Amino acid sequence: MDIFLRNIDPVAMQKIDELAKEQKMSRQRFLQEQFELLAFFDEQIAREKRLESIIEQDLQLMNQCATKMEKMNDILCEMIGDVED
Fold this sequence. Notes:
The structure is a single chain. This protein has helices at 10-22, 27-80. The chain has one domain. It is mainly α. It starts with 9 loop residues before the first helix and ends in a 5-residue tail after the last helix. The protein is rod-shaped and about 80 Å long. The longest helix has 54 residues, at 27-80.
């Protein structure tokens, strides 16, 4: 699909050209990638938030498991008479 834009600020266009040159691509290709990124930006942010939530839940569960394992270790040490002071 083609998009035609008019009346773009010359300073903005110069900055776009500089960014495209830094990435060794044409203005056309640079703008195409930027439009595609923009189209999926909200979706990507939502995915990142879901992932962060999952990671936080996993960390909480791992901490709970570590606490339970420490308690079990203490109980086992007491049962076999190997109490650490």
